[in-house]
Amino acid sequence: METHHQHLLFVDFEFTMPQGKLNPQGFYPEIIEVGIVSVRNQKIEHQFSSYVKPVKFPLLSDRCKSFLHISQAKVDNGITFYELIELLNNYDQVAPNTVITWGNMDMKVLRQNCQLQNIAFPFSGKFRDLSMEYKKFFGDRNQTGLWKAVEEYGKKGTGRHHCALDDAMTTYNIFKLVEQDKRYLARPRPTTIGERIDLSKVLNKYAT
């Protein structure tokens, strides 16, 4: 499969969240944590994890801190948004890559943050939303959450949910399971003995 030889980047971001009804004017989600798992030739080549300082609304809401278990101090000591973009640019320049995320929010927020900061979007390769592939593959009517999807496979998520690197690693693990299933289903299935017996019954019925 072509994915074996590509440079695959599994990316997960966590974002700021408004407090509730009392949103700061002009509020928009900003990236505050990044997790990246870089895979080449089916092997993990590199992992990266860091907190990121929000540019426009640097103070985290209580809701955001409690939901993501992220403290203000951790974010204050994170890399800047500009350093994040530089890092993503470096990944992009290493090799043609395919960025794989669970859901479309990660790239949507990254694109919006870049536009609002007047910075060029760092990725030039392909994008795959694994949650949509999963949905199509299993015929789920609803889009499944990342960790629910892992549990449907009878597995556990890696580490802690809503920790960016753990979510990126869990996305990679699901990717491997889905690709494995796709290969399995692509093979012609041998006829089982049960089906042969049923067929002979049908033929006997019409035999004169």
UniProtKB/TrEMBL annotation:
Residues 7-184 form the Exonuclease domain. This is 3'-5' exonuclease KapD. The keyword rRNA-binding does not apply. One of its GO terms (molecular function) is exonuclease activity. The lineage of its organism: Bacteria, Bacillati, Bacillota, Bacilli, Bacillales. Pfam families: RNase_T. InterPro entries: 3-5_Exoribonuclease, ERI-1_3'hExo-like, Ribonucl_H, RNaseH-like_sf, RNaseH_sf. NCBIfam families: PRK07748.1. Keywords: Exonuclease, Hydrolase, Nuclease. The keyword tRNA processing does not apply. It comes from the Bacteria. CDD domains: ERI-1_3'hExo_like.
